Each structure stands twice: as structure tokens, then as C-alpha cells.
């Protein structure tokens, strides 16, 4: 079963925001972070998630990583990759070149663990502002742009899997 959340309306849109159905694992994670009003709790949880980061396996990607896989606007020099699975979904993997890129590593784990194996059509429904919902309102503009770039790259990989133009 998948959870639901309201997407933020665009400034020129009228009416209530559309309902976005998130994949179940992602919905559960977003809900768990929504219950963490304390910034320190959120930071500790994100560090714990980042500790699970493993770079993309060598059979999927090797250095130097192709530029077309580079995450746009990411200060941590992150790259995203996808391996097609038999059911048509994708297995997502990332490389984060900056060893201090804890936020990028945490986001890589979140995207990999919650979106791998999900139908590409559902991946495309994930809101681009997902990092703000997980990392909280204290996220800097630069970091926010890079983490949203990771979501955009996952969208691009899903569109490619579906044969849609980027």
C-alpha cells in the first residue's frame, strides 16, 4: 500500500494542491521525519542513514564517471546510475566524490532504498522538493539545489527507462 502526501502548489496554480502518492517505503520515511521536530534528532538520523552509503558497484559505473550521470547543482560531485530490473523497474545507485558530502550520501541511500524496484511511472511522481521534506526547513539553498538535483536525475533515469524524452 502506498501513502499519500500533498504536493506544494505552484505559485500560479489555483485550488488545492494535487495529491501525490508516494511509494510505501518513501512515504514511511517522510512520515518518520515529519515526527522529528527537533533539528538535532533529524541530523543524527540523516548521519545514520549516510553511514549506510555504498558507492555504485564497479559493474555499473567506474571512474571517471560520465558527465551525463552527474547530479546537476550538487556541490558534493554526486553521480546517479540505474540498472534495469526484470520487472521494468530500476535499481538506483550513486557515487559521491566528496567524502564530506554527508547530505548527498544520505539522499543517495534514501533514493536507492526507497525507489529501487518501484515502477518508473511512480518514480516520476516523487516531488522534486522531497529533500526539503526530509532534511527540514533549515536546509541551505545550495544544499537544497544539489539534493533536488538528485531527485531530478532519478526522474531522468526513470524517463529514459520508459523511453520518454528528458
3D architecture notes:
- With 166 residues, this protein is of the alpha+beta class.
- Helix content is 41%, strand content 13%.
- The strands form 2 sheets. The protein has a two-stranded antiparallel sheet. Strands 3-4 form a two-stranded antiparallel ribbon.
- Strand 3 and strand 4 form a beta hairpin.
- Helix 2 crosses helix 3 (102-115) and helix 3 packs parallel to helix 6 (141-161).
- 31% of the residues are buried.
Write the layout of secondary structure elements.
Layout: E1 3-6, E2 19-22, H1 24-34, H2 39-50, E3 78-84, E4 90-96, H3 102-115, H4 120-123, H5 130-135, H6 141-161
Antiparallel strand pairs: 1-2, 3-4
Helix pairs in contact: 1-3, 2-3, 3-6
How many strands, what sense, and barrel or not for the largest sheet? 2 strands, antiparallel
Oligomer: single chain
Which segments are poorly predicted (pLDDT under 50) over 5 or more consecutive residues?
none
Distance between the termini: 29 Å
What is the average of the pLDDT values? 91
- Can you list the strand order of the major beta sheet? 1-2
What is the helical fraction, as a range of percent?
40-55%
Structural class, from secondary structure content?
alpha+beta
Radius of gyration: 15 Å
Secondary-structure element order, N to C: EEHHEEHHHH
Shape: globular
Number of helices: 6
**Overall strand count:** 4
Task: Tell me the fraction of residues in β-strands, as a range.
Answer: 5-15%
